[in-house]
Write a structure and sequence with these properties.
By secondary structure, the protein is α/β, with parallel strands linked by helices. The protein folds into 2 domains: 162 residues, YjeF N-terminal domain (Rossmann fold, 3-Layer(aba) Sandwich), CATH 3.40.50; 271 residues, UDP-N-acetylmuramoyl-L-alanine:D-glutamate ligase. It contains 17 helices and 16 strands. The strands form 2 sheets. Strands 10-9-8-11-12-13-14-15-16 form a 9-stranded mixed beta sheet, with helices on both faces. A 7-stranded parallel beta sheet has the order 3-2-1-4-5-6-7, with helices on both faces. The chain is elongated and about 80 Å long.
Amino acid sequence: MDSRVLDINAAYLGVPTETLMENAGKAVADECMRYRSVCIFAGRGNNGGDGLVAARILFQNGANIKLYALAGERSRLCRLNFERLPEKLDVAEIKSVEDVGPLDGFELIVDALLGTGFTGVLREPSKSIVAKINGSPALKLSVDTPTAGMVEADMVLSLHESKVIGAKVADIGIPEEAELYCGPGDVVCAIPARKKDSHKGEFGKLLVIGGAKQYIGTPTLVGQAAQRVGTDLVTLAVPQYVADKMPFDPNIMVTPLESKDFVTAESLDVLDASLFDTIVVGNGMGRAKESKEALKKILSWKKPTVIDADALNLLEFDWLHGQAILTPHKKEFEGLFGKAEGNLEKISEIAAKNASKINSTIVLKGEVDVISNGTTTRLNKSGTPFMTKGGTGDVLAGVIGGLLAQNKLCLESACAGAFLTGLAGEIASDKLGESLTATDVIASLHEAIEKCRSFAK
C-alpha cells in the first residue's frame, strides 16, 4: 500500500505524520549507531525527512555524520526537520553531483533520496548522485526502498511493511486500522494532481450507460457525482425516452441511443468506446433481456467498468475481463454468489474468495462495506443511516467511476469512493438529517474532499 495513504489515514486516526517521521528517523538512526562514520543523502520529500531526523539523532548521540541534502522546495515535514538540524552538524545542500565530496572515508552511506512515492525516470542531480553512491566502497542502507530501484543497497530498512524482498521492517507506530479501514489517505492518493499544462480530458472521460422508461434520473446522478470528484468529461448514453425526459445539466453530454425505452445491444452502435477511459453501467437500466445482451457487448469492449444496480442482475461472470468493479448490496451479492452470513471477518473472507474467483473488485455495501480484489481486502465504515434514500447508490457508482476514469486503479478507486461517498453523506446529514437526498450527497463531495486533504497537510 502507498505509504502516503497510511500516513494520512494514521493522522485521521490521531497519529500525526510528524510523529511517524520522528519514529522512522529513530529507526534509521538505530541501524546506523554501530558505524563510526555515516554519510546521509536526504531528498526533498518525506523519505528525505526520515533521513534528516536520523541525522539529527545520530549527531546528538555523538556519531560522526555528514549530511547531503538536496536543495530546492521541500515537503512541509522535510522542511520542518531541516530547520531542526543542529547548527554544528556538517550539512551541505547540493544542487549538482559536483557538490558531493569524496565518499571513500565513510563506513555507511544512507540513501534517503526518494521513497515509494517516486514514479518516472530519475533526473539530475539525483541520477548522478546515485551513480556516485554506487561507486563508493561503503556499505549502503536504503530507507524504505532503494531510490528509483537504482541504489545498490546492501541493506534496506522498510517502514511499517516490507517494500522489497529481504528488507528489514521497522514499526513506526502506524495503527492497524490505518491499513485495514479506508480513510482520507485513500481519497487524497486516488485523485491525481493537476499540472499547469493539463488539458481537457486528461483527467478522465467517463461513459455512463443506463436509464430506462421507469428510471429517468439515475444516469444524471451518476454523471454529476463523477464530475464532482474531478472527472473532466462525462457522457450519458441513454434510451431516447430518457434523453427526452431527463433533467437538463449543461455540464454533462448526452448521447441518445436509438432504442426508445431501454438499452439494447444494437442501440450501442452509435458509441465509439475508444473515446472513453471508463464505463459505469447498470443504473436505472432495467432488466429486459435485450439489456442483458447490451451488457455483454459493453463488457466486450474491455474498458475499466463499474457494474452497478440492474447490471448486477444481468451479469454473467464469463463476460468479465479483469478490470471490473462490482458494487452489490447484500441481496445483490447473494444473488450472484450465494449466502453471505456470519460476522464481519467471515463475510470479508467470502467477498475475497469470490473477488478472486471472478478476477474483479467487489464492493459489498453494508453497515461496514467490504472491498476486495481477492488479494487485498479493506473495510469502510464511513456513512450514515440517513443514506438509505434512493439514489445514493448511484452516487457511489459515479464517485467510484469518476475516480477510476482518472487513475485507472480498480481497488484504489473502490476504497476511495466508498470512504468519500460515506463522508459526504455524513457532512450532508449533519445539516439535513432525514431531509438528506442523493443530490445533497453530491453537493457535499467537495467539502468531503477538502476535509480529506486537511489530514495531508
